[in-house]
Write a structure and sequence with these properties.
606 residues; alpha/beta; Uridine Diphospho-n-acetylenolpyruvylglucosamine Reductase, domain 2; Uridine Diphospho-n-acetylenolpyruvylglucosamine Reductase, domain 3; Uridine Diphospho-n-acetylenolpyruvylglucosamine Reductase, domain 1; 4 domains; seven-stranded mixed β-sheet; 16 helices; 22% helix; globular
Length: 606
């Protein structure tokens, strides 16, 4: 009997309660069952998403892959000495059940986190927090299944790199490790560990004594239920957005710009011994949303909760797209009024890949300066080709490939407000000249750039002011990641580099799922072509009809397309010699599934 179900209704596996299905679904009750599932064809040949209680998931479409859920629900206590007790809970345990276990055992440390929906595994992924306490404060270790080695591994709490609603499991470890068990180091005796948060201070004053951990948990539950919707009646994910953390100086500038006394509280230094550490503050996201006039705002069946503007609710018939569109409106309106970026706590789940062609032209762009040919003087917008670049959106991430010198114009045209990561194919100026234009998107965070080793050296040389140890204020905040010709992950999204030769110079194209983007190629070795089989969509460079020493010509590009047989192919990095957009198919006798790309073209790969 197979453990894997097909076409599974997963509506009940999220607290939003938005209808969705999974192509495959499996729940495992032991480590042995998980290992068995990991050897199946459904696991090896599909997207795989491991979920918990679904309290932080928003499905934008049916899940085209395998959804895994942990059905392991054991809890045990181990005392090392009278002052230290470990509670070890398996990942499938409901968080509220864990809290009740700790209260019953008179173990302090998690009482401030009462009434939070979800399961134990998510506490280590999200580093759940409330009322002055975060799970990471007391997580001693996390046991995981490594999907690469298929072995059981264990990480210390320190190795998990917990941050504000963040951990390594949300970033570089995402998709690789499935949490099986979390060990919490708690304090016997039942004395509350944190009463600094306002309402809990009031509780101590009201009682005239220090409350018990159960009294703290009950007060936290009362406060949460007065503000948050009942998950059994109204679908939501709880707090939808993180509270922004910004530099203190930037916060002061925001007050001057917005002419509003934006409330914030100072964050303790991460490295107290570092005199150069920049002071940071945390801003109340609910206040921002409320004072942007968004309480009660509605899109379709989704609305901003009247009692707590940090919450988006499903009023009964919301779709994932309703929630996503409403979240975008909130982000835009808050930024319009307060100049602050809001970032969702919620994970967007969408196996579709959305591609926007930002530029489809060559290093000179079209029209070329001083050229009076029919293409360069054309009035057709399809013949206006900025330098080559694309934007990929999938799984809630916005990935830019090559910030061209025209990126500022492209971003304004497409309304791009934020970028989560940048892939760079090579260091020629027409592919990196827009790096400085990423500055507005770096005010509150570092943007990771994924580059070859030779590209890193060139960028450090030519953009030294960006990458020096002591950066000038206001330069782009970028984090260089050196990659080689092996697959890697960006927050769970698998990226496969494709090494091609640009003349004699090795550079990278990239594959994500059933989509690949290759530009500036002249030749592609057979072992790299093997990475391009089975594509639904390929975007490939084709400079012109006649040969070029460093770029594919149209005939050469068509030969490669015929060999790997993608369902659809689009030609990019087009010079003016190739002709006007609507004439290209006939001039070059393109097959029915091959098309010229154009600036602003949007594709969705299902």
């Amino acid at each position: 009997m197979t453990m894997i179900e097909e076409n599974k209704d997963i509506t009940g596996f999220t607290t939003f309660g938005i209808p969705a299905k999974a192509r495959y679904f499996a729940e495992y009750k032991s480590e042995k069952e998980l290992l068995k599932i990991s050897r199946t064809e459904e696991f090896r040949n599909n997207n795989v998403l491991h979920i918990g209680g679904g309290s932080n998931l928003l499905f934008l479409s049916d899940y085209d892959g395998l959804l895994l859920h942990c059905g392991m629900k054991g809890i045990k206590r181990y005392d090392s000495n009278p002052e230290r007790a470990f509670v070890i809970a398996e990942a499938g345990v409901k968080w509220t059940d864990l809290i009740e276990f700790c209260l019953h055992e008179n173990l302090a440390g998690l009482e401030n986190l009462a009434d939070i929906p979800g399961e134990v595994g998510a506490s280590a992924v999200q580093n759940v927090g409330a009322y002055g306490v975060e799970a990471g404060d007391v997580i001693f270790s996390v046991k995981c299944f490594d999907t690469v080695t298929r072995e059981i591994v264990k990480f210390s709490g320190k190795e998990c790199r917990f941050g504000y609603r963040d951990s390594a499991f949300k970033n570089e470890w995402k998709g690789r490790y499935y949490i099986l068990e979390v060990a919490y180091l708690l304090t016997p005796g039942g004395e509350p560990q944190s009463l600094e948060y306002g309402p809990l201070k009031d509780l101590e004053e009201k009682l005239g004594r220090k409350p018990t951990i159960r009294e703290v948990a009950e007060e936290v539950t009362r406060i949460r239920r007065s503000k948050l919707p009942d998950p059994d009646k109204i679908g939501s994910a709880g707090s939808f957005f993180k509270n922004p953390e910004v530099r203190k100086r930037y916060w002061e500038e925001l007050i001057a710009l917005s002419k509003e006394e934006i409330p914030a509280f100072p964050l303790p230094p991460k490295n107290p011994d570092d005199p150069d550490e920049v002071p940071m503050v945390k801003i109340n996201a609910a206040w921002l949303i409320d004072h942007a006039g968004l309480k009660g705002r509605r899109v379709g069946g989704a609305s901003v909760y009247e009692k707590q503007p940090l919450v988006i609710v499903n009023d009964g018939d919301a779709t994932g797209e309703d929630v996503s569109r409403l979240a975008d409106i909130i982000i835009r309106e808050v930024k319009r009024k307060f100049y602050i970026d809001l970032y969702p706590e919620v994970n967007y789940i969408d196996t579709r890949i959305h591609v926007t062609v930002l530029g489809s032209g060559t290093s000179k762009g079209i029209p070329e300066v001083g050229c009076l040919c029919p293409v360069c003087t054309s009035d057709d917008s399809h013949d206006k080709r900025l330098r080559a670049s694309i934007l990929i959106q999938t799984q809630g991430l916005r990935i830019l490939v090559d910030p061209s010198p025209d990126f500022r114009t492209q971003a304004l045209r497409e309304g791009i407000m934020d970028i989560d990561a940048v892939l760079i194919t090579h260091s020629h100026y027409d592919h990196v000249g827009g790096i400085d234009d990423l500055r507005p998107m770096c005010a509150q965070k570092f943007i990771p750039l994924y580059v070859r080793e030779d590209v890193e050296k060139n960028l450090r040389k030519h953009l030294d002011y960006v990458f020096r140890d002591h950066r000038y204020p206001g330069v782009p905040a970028l984090d260089l990641h050196v990659i080689d010709n092996k697959p890697f992950y960006i927050k769970g999204v698998k990226i496969t580099p494709i090494e091609v030769l640009h003349g004699k110079w090795p550079i990278f194209g990239y594959r994500i799922g059933d989509f690949a983007y290759v530009t500036d190629a002249k030749t592609i070795a057979d072992e790299e072509l093997d990475k391009l089989y089975g594509l639904k969509v390929l975007i490939l460079n084709a400079l012109r009809a006649r040969p070029h020493f460093a770029h594919l010509s149209v005939p050469e590009a068509l030969e490669i397309i015929e060999k790997i047989k993608p369902e659809e192919a689009y030609l990019t990095h087009l010079c003016h010699e190739i002709g006007k957009h609507y004439d290209i198919p006939s001039i070059h006798n393109l097959p029915p599934n091959v098309h010229p790309a154009y600036d602003g073209m949007k594709l969705t790969i299902e």
